[in-house]
Amino acid sequence: MSIVDELRALEVEALGAIGSVSDLPALEDVRIAFLGKKGSLTAVLRGLGSLPADERPAVGKVSNEVREALERALEARKEELAGAAMADRFIAEAVDVTLPGRLRLPGKRHLINQTVDDIVKVFLGLGYKIAEGPEAELDYYNFTALNHPPEHPARAATDTFYLRDLSGDTAAIEGESDVLLRTHTSPVQVRVMERQQPPIYVLAPGKVYRRDVADPSHLPQFTQIEGLVVDEGITFGDLKGTLEHFVREIFGPDRKVRLRPHFFPFTEPSAEVDVSCGMCGGSGCRSCSGEGWLEVLGSGMVDPNVFGYVGIDPERYTGFAFGVGAERVAALKYGIPDLRLFVDGDMRFLRQF
Ligand code: PHE
C-alpha cells in the first residue's frame, strides 16, 4: 500500500471512530489514538522524511488534508457531544412548572391577641402605661384589698381556683391568705397603687381564671384588660368619655354606649357598659337577644376603701377603673357565636382572622 493510500485508510478509520463515540472522554481517546504523540497519523508523518524528495510535496499535502479533516471532524463532534450533554442536563434538571405549589401557612397572631393589641393601642394613644401582675395571685390582692368581705360569694372554692389550701401545712404564711388563680385583672390595680402615687394612668391586660364549665358564653380561662386612672379631679364624666372613645375606636363610629348601674365591691358607683348591637343597629335582633345592646365591660369610680388599703388620700384623689373581656369584644366585633372557638385550635376558624 502506498503511503497516500495508508493516509486515506487512516482518515476513513479515524472518521468512523469519531462518529461512533458517545461522550467527550471517548472522543479525547480517539484524538490521542490518531493525532497524539504516539498516534497512528503522527507515526505515518514521521516516515515522511525517508521518502524520495520528489514524492514528499504530494504526500505532505495529503497528510495535511487528512490532519485538517480529522481536526475539523473532532471539533464538530465535540460540539455535538457537548450540546447533547447540555440537553441531557436540561432534561434531568427540568422544573415542572405545572406541578401544584406547596401550601405554606404563615403564622400570625391569635384573634384574641390581635384584639388585646388593638385595645392597648387605643389607650397608649391616650398616654396610659402598661402594667402587669401575676396570674397566681394572693387572695389579698384578688379580693381583700379590693374590698370583698370575707363571705363574698366570688371567694367560694366553687368559683375560684385555689392553688393552696389555708387549712393545710403549706399555707403557713403570716398575714397572707390563699394563693389562687386571679379571677380578674383588678388585683393589678392594687399592685400599681401600692407602688405608685397618682397621677396613675395604666392598662393591664392578662389572663384570668374562673371555675366555669366552657360553654358558648363562658371559658374557664379568658382575657381581661384592666384600666385604672387616679388623679386629682377625676369624675364619672371622665370615665364615660373614656369608654365612649374606646368603644368607637374598637367597634366603629356608629356604635352607641350605654351605662347601666351595677355593683362591684371595689368601685362606687359602678356601671356595666353596653354597646349598641352591630347586627341590628339597636332595634333588637337574635344576636342581642332582642335587646339592641350587648354588654362589654364593668367599670366604676374607685371605692375610697380601696384607696385605704394602698395609702392613697381619698380626700385629694379620685379615680375610675374598668375591666374589658377581650373574648367578648372579639365575639361582638366579628360576630362569633361561641367563645370556645377561640380555644379549640380549629385552623378553619383561626385562619379567617
Ligand atoms: N373586675 C371586674 C370583673 O371581672 C370588672 C371591673 C373592673 C369592674 C374594674 C369595675 C372596675 O367583672
Question: What does this molecule look like?
Answer:
This protein has 2 domains: 3-92; 111-350, 2-Layer Sandwich (BirA Bifunctional Protein, domain 2). It has helices spanning 3-20, 24-35, 40-46, 56-92, 111-124, 139-142, 187-195, 236-251, 304-310, 326-334, 347-350, and strands at 129-130, 136-138, 179-181, 200-209, 221-231, 257-264, 267-276, 293-302, 318-325. Helices cover 39% and strands 18% of the residues. By secondary structure, it is of the alpha+beta class. A 7-stranded mixed sheet has the order 1-4-5-9-8-7-6, with helices on both faces. Mean pLDDT is 90; it is low at 171-176. The structure holds phenylalanine. The site of phenylalanine has 11 residues, from β7, β8 and β9. Phenylalanine (PHE) binds at residues 184, 186, 264, 267, 270, 298-300, 321-323.
